[in-house]
């Protein structure tokens, strides 16, 4: 119980720090507090002045963040400046879409990555290894926007594009881990003694790779979320990725702080989950 | 497996030589606009045709290769070294340092670094040379792109720490730094080389995307990312074969890095 | 019995077929508001155009004002007062009757001092209250504290709100009403059951039952959807996409001719800017600006960047604005020798291909433009080569839009800027804040306490003169003279006027794209889909 409480407290501190740092980055970036509408020549000087005053703030970033946290305690996430809607409503509407996209993307990405990483070992084929590397390399070089558009043109869900963006990154790490572990003495001995590739893989290689794979799984969630931004923008998926892009262009502090906290929370949860699983495995090995 | 690797190294050397020696042989300068022949097909005067502004594509491809092949691997190396340093330190240092470093890694993965890039661009003088501007962009990308790999390095290092040879080295009196340098780092090469290989095209494409925010390479200097922007979106599906050359070159170079980097093969 | 059943089926099929007609096109951003008084962005303006009932409507094809909710109107007091006679028996979409009270209520909301919108600001001619008098349920008078130039045409953008409806701004008088809205996805408008217009056969308009506005930021996707038949038109196309579409399906594209918009470049002449003194001296020199202008090959810009769908620009008023454009002015000829001669007058000289000023500084400066706008990036690159021809090193810097706006409106930390001018109106009076030296949009040197130069003082006088008289001929003379001064002094270096390009599906009928916004759906209530035929006067 105590350990759990410590863990939660640590996560909360990092989460709050993430929100504060995110707010700071936005606040001090050039273009904060300006509005494109200022260039509208139909507005008179008084209106432009009013527009500037509405966007300006003498409040320090610290005070702003404290106000934000105070409102957060009451469930109020603020109102988006760019979209004039409550941030809470926007996130509630769009988060499930992104979760779906990221979920599909991660599933496809990992299946492809692990498949391509393990296949050469199972087939014991150098040609397969070379093909897998070139295949993954090709996808690594394709712009995300192009991949997304390809799926749209093929009348398929753009969510699959996230998988094709994630898989080459996961593949390369996974492939190198497989080859490293496959070269270990006890594995070579097992092969020499006639044990099949599949049992070797399942009983010796994959278990040894698990800590690294779990760590990779944790970070692949962040990679998938980052990939969701261009994919949602192009494929017209109303998720938080699309929202993040609009918020960035509009320097929408309220939206960006909340989005940063959401992304930080997801990153923390996925990586902490991976760490905990790794910790349990280590304990199990130690007690065995 | 030496033949494909040898071919890959040879091709990389050829590309580098073409970039270095290119200006001696190529015809038009990469910035020169032949406005009477915009979007032209390949011809004797323009071996790969011309772009929207009538600039020779071959000249721009060579110059862009020089820029990207120098800067992207350098940025990838920077991010790899940082990933190795942070990940290994986190695993080898005490519990609190590990937690702090992993928390910093998670923050690095979550924060909107776009605004830092925009701020840095704003601080640079407007009349900075295009090459200096793109160098700064790649340095920033390298400095920010280490976080994902650091976690994998940390997990890998932890696993290595319980390996027999590491225990033997510790029993033999190796200090932490020596342990890190002599035992751990060499065995982290598979993960680090993966990070390096992945980072090169990722940084090139990121540089292209940052161009949408004014953070990429400035005209008239070309880069692979800038050349690839031409293929983004719908344009790719109506593009001519010569317009794909930057993409083909990038894919081939990345493939060559794949064949060159990791010496370990699948055991047969 | 069987006949009755067949008839019912036929009728229901017909009704179903009619009820099915849905016009689809894309909005490039989320609408920020459905309140017509607060509209300031393009998407909200689209919704207002489709749902709002106005007293008069500017026919985008003929550019003449036509009666709508008002059957007649009269402007008096030199533009201080306007009186309306309203149609009788009309109702809002929720059934609430439309009366003069609603007009008074709308004007009260629009002129509220706390409301800052382009629509309201157009009416703010001077200090004092706007007085609205309801004479009868169908007649109303609005009196302004000072004359308002082009008063009647301004009501084209005033969508009437209901004073009594519980639905507030959602109760409308236009052809459509907001039926459904999914943020980030789409906005669905359905026909207003109480829309007052009928065609010559007595059928209630609009012909199309619903309008679905897909929220789509990506232009590639928009084009793809048009080609797939998922949307019915694209209101405004870039030259590059126009060409691509023309090559694949020439029947889809429409070029309505030169638009009202211009691309322009200017130098930072703000005295308090953080530029070195010698650069300020360059940029405030008329000879320098004219030399730069003469060194730019506008024909190449129009031909290469805009694929021939643009013309060299002359003035802030486009030739498409037939009445107000000063036809005596000609675009600057590309003449680098003339440019060098002008520069020589200011003591510039060329050595080893580089231009130096009197004090020996090499002429080098940057031009900022908004990143992501391919046409502007290409124009800047072409200008870079043009200026290299006279020994000037131009650095092209693309910035994200908020950063750029901060530089040109707050910090003034820039040397030159390349942006576009979007003209929504024919009347030059809407550009007051650009041409008055004290104006916010007087981009090269805004908020001047007193005009910095004699020619800016003359422009101030002329613009105030044209704003204070209803005599159109006098206004034309003043505006012509302003254009002449601008042509001579080049505070803005006008580059090109783009063509108004759009794409229309063959299934959409009675669409006649024009240069005024909204280019394609300006006659929304007369558009038809499929086999339907419009019967309107």
Count, helices of chain A: 11
DSSP summary: helix tally of chain B: 11
For the terminal residues of chain A, how far apart are their CA atoms? 25 Å
**Shape, principal axes of CA atoms of chain B:** elongated
Indicate the structural class of chain A: mainly alpha
Spans of at least 5 consecutive residues with low confidence of chain B: none
Assembly form of the protein: heterotrimer
Count all strands of chain B and give the number: 0
Helix-strand topology string of chain B: HHHHHHHHHHH
Helix content of chain B: 55-70%
Query: From N to C, what is the helix and strand string of chain A?
Result: HHHHHHHHHHH
Structural class of chain B: mainly alpha
For the sheet with most strands of chain B, the description reads: none
- Rg for CA atoms of chain B: 22 Å
> What is the averaged pLDDT score of chain A?
85
**What overall form of chain A do the CA principal axes indicate?**
elongated
Q: Give the fraction of residues assigned to helices of chain A.
A: over 70%
Overall pLDDT level of chain B: 85
In brief, what are we looking at here?
The complex is a heterotrimer of chains A (288), B (268) and C (537). By secondary structure, chain B is mostly helical.
What secondary-structure arrangement, pairings included, does this model have?
The complex is a heterotrimer of chains A (288), B (268) and C (537).
Chain A: H1 2-27, H2 45-55, H3 61-73, H4 87-123, H5 126-141, H6 144-153, H7 159-182, H8 185-192, H9 197-235, H10 240-250, H11 253-287
Helix pairs in contact in A: 1-11, 4-5, 4-7, 4-9, 5-7, 6-7, 6-9, 7-9, 9-10, 9-11, 10-11
Chain B: H1 2-25, H2 57-92, H3 95-110, H4 114-123, H5 130-144, H6 147-161, H7 164-171, H8 176-187, H9 189-210, H10 224-228, H11 245-261
Helix pairs in contact in B: 1-2, 1-11, 2-3, 2-5, 2-6, 2-8, 2-9, 3-6, 7-8, 9-11
Chain C: H1 2-19, E1 22-27, H2 42-51, E2 56-58, E3 65-67, E4 70-76, E5 81-86, H3 100-110, H4 118-121, E6 131-136, E7 139-143, H5 151-154, E8 176-182, E9 186-191, E10 210-215, H6 219-228, E11 233-234, H7 239-248, E12 253-258, E13 262-267, H8 277-283, H9 286-295, H10 298-305, E14 310-312, H11 336-345, E15 349-351, E16 354-356, E17 364-370, H12 374-388, E18 393-399, H13 401-411, E19 416-421, H14 432-435, H15 454-467, H16 472-489, E20 492-504, E21 508-509, E22 528-529
Parallel strand pairs in C: 1-10, 17-18, 17-19
Antiparallel strand pairs in C: 2-3, 4-5, 5-7, 6-7, 8-9, 9-10, 11-20, 12-20, 13-19, 13-20, 14-20, 15-16, 21-22
Helix pairs in contact in C: 9-11, 15-16
């Amino acid at each position: 119980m105590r350990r759990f409480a410590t863990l939660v407290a640590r996560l909360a501190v990092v989460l709050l720090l993430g929100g504060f740092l995110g707010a700071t980055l936005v606040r001090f970036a050039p273009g904060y507090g300006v509005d494109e509408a200022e260039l509208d020549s139909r507005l008179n000087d008084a209106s432009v002045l009013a527009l500037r005053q509405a966007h300006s703030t003498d409040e320090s970033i610290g005070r702003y963040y404290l106000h934000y946290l105070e409102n957060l305690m009451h469930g109020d996430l603020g109102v988006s400046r760019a979209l004039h809607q409550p941030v809470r409503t926007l996130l509630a509407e769009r988060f499930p879409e992104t979760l779906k996209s990221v979920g599909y993307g991660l599933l496809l990405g990992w299946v492809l990555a692990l498949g391509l990483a393990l296949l050469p070992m199972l087939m014991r084929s150098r040609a397969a290894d070379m093909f897998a590397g070139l295949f993954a390399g090709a996808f690594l070089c394709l712009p995300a926007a192009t991949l997304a558009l390809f799926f749209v043109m093929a009348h398929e869900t753009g969510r699959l594009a996230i998988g094709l963006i994630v898989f080459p990154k996961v593949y390369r790490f996974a492939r190198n881990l497989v080859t490293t572990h496959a070269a270990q003495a006890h594995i070579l001995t097992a092969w020499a003694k006639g044990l099949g590739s599949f049992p070797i893989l399942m009983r010796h290689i994959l278990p040894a790779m698990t800590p690294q794979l779990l760590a990779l799984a944790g970070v692949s969630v962040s990679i998938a979320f980052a990939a969701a931004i261009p994919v949602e923008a192009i494929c017209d998926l109303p998720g938080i990725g699309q929202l993040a892009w609009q918020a960035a262009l509009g320097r929408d502090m309220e939206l960006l702080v909340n989005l940063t906290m959401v992304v930080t929370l997801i990153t923390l949860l996925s990586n902490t989950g991976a760490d905990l699983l790794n910790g349990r495995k280590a304990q199990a090995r130690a007690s065995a | 497996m030496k033949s494909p690797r040898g071919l890959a190294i040879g091709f990389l050397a050829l590309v580098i030589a073409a970039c270095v020696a290119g200006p001696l042989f190529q015809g038009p300068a990469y910035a020169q606009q032949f406005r009477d022949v915009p979007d032209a097909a390949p011809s004797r005067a323009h071996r790969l045709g011309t772009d929207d502004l009538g600039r020779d594509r071959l000249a721009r491809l060579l110059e862009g290769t020089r820029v990207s092949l120098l800067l992207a691997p350098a940025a990838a190396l920077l991010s790899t070294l940082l990933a190795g340093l942070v990940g290994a330190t986190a695993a080898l240092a005490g519990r609190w340092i590990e937690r702090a470093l992993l928390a910093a890694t998670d923050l690095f993965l979550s924060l909107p670094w776009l605004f830092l890039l925009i701020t840095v661009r704003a601080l640079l003088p407007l009349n900075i040379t295009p090459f200096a501007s793109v160098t700064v962009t790649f340095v920033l990308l390298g400095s920010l792109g280490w976080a994902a790999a650091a976690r994998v390095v940390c997990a890998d290092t932890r696993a290595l720490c319980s390996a027999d040879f590491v225990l033997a080295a510790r029993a033999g009196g190796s200090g932490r730094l020596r342990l890190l340098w002599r035992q751990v780092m060499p065995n982290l090469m598979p993960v680090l080389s993966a990070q390096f290989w992945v980072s090169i095209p990722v940084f090139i494409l990121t540089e292209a995307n940052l161009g949408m925010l004014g953070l990429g390479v400035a005209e008239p200097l070309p880069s692979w990312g800038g050349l690839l922007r031409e293929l983004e979106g719908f344009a790719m599906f109506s593009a001519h074969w010569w317009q794909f050359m930057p993409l083909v070159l990038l894919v081939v170079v990345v493939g060559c890095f794949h064949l060159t980097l990791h010496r370990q093969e699948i055991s047969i | 019995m069987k006949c009755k059943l067949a008839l019912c089926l036929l009728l229901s099929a017909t009704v179903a077929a009619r009820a099915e007609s849905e016009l689809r096109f894309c909005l490039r951003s989320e609408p920020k508001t459905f309140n017509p008084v607060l509209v300031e962005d393009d998407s909200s303006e689209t919704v207002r155009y489709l749902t709002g009932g106005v007293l008069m409507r500017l026919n985008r094809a003929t550019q003449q004002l036509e009666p709508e909710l008002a059957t007649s109107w009269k402007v008096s007091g030199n533009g201080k007062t306007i009186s309306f006679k309203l149609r009788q028996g009309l109702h809002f979409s929720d059934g609430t009757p439309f009366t003069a009270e609603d007009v008074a209520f709308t004007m009260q909301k629009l002129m509220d001092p706390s409301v800052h919108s382009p629509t309201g600001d157009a009416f703010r001619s001077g200090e004092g209250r706007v007085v609205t008098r309801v004479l009868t349920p169908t007649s109303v008078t609005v009196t302004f504290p000072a004359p308002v130039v082009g008063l009647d045409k301004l009501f084209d953008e005033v969508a009437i709100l209901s004073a009594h409806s519980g639905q507030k701004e959602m109760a409308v008088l236009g052809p459509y009403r907001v039926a459904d809205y999914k943020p980030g996805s789409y906005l669905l408008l359905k026909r207003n059951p109480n829309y007052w217009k009928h065609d010559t056969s007595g059928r209630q308009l609009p012909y199309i039952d619903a309008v679905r506005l897909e929220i789509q930021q990506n232009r590639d996707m928009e084009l793809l959807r048009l080609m797939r038949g998922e949307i019915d038109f694209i209101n405004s196309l870039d030259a590059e996409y126009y060409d691509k579409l023309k090559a694949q399906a020439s029947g889809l594209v429409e070029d309505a001719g030169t638009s009202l918009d211009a691309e322009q470049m200017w130098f930072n002449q703000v005295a308090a800017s953080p530029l070195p003194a010698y650069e300020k001296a360059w940029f405030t020199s008329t000879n320098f600006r004219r030399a730069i202008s003469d060194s730019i090959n506008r024909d190449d810009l129009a031909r290469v960047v805009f694929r021939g769908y643009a013309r060299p620009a002359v003035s802030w008023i486009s030739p498409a604005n037939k009445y107000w454009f000063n036809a005596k002015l000609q675009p600057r000829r590309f003449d680098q020798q003339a440019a060098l001669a002008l520069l020589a007058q200011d003591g510039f000289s060329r050595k080893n291909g580089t231009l130096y000023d009197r004090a020996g500084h090499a002429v080098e400066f940057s031009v900022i433009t908004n990143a992501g706008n391919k046409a502007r990036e290409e124009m800047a690159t072409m200008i870079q080569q043009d200026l290299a021809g006279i020994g000037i090193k131009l650095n092209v810097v693309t910035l994200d839009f908020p950063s750029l706006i901060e530089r040109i409106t707050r910090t003034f930390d820039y040397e030159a800027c390349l942006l576009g001018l979007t003209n929504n109106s024919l009347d030059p009076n809407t550009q007051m804040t650009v041409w008055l030296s004290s104006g916010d949009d007087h981009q090269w040197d805004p908020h001047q306490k007193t005009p910095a130069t004699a020619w800016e003082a003359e422009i101030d006088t002329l613009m105030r003169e044209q704003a204070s008289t209803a005599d159109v001929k006098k206004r034309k003379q003043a505006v012509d003279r302003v254009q002449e001064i601008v042509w001579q002094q080049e505070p803005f270096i006008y580059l090109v006027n783009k063509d108004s390009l759009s794409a229309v599906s063959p299934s959409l009928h009675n669409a006649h794209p024009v240069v005024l916004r909204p280019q394609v759906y300006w006659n929304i209530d007369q558009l038809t889909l499929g086999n339907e035929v419009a019967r309107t006067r």
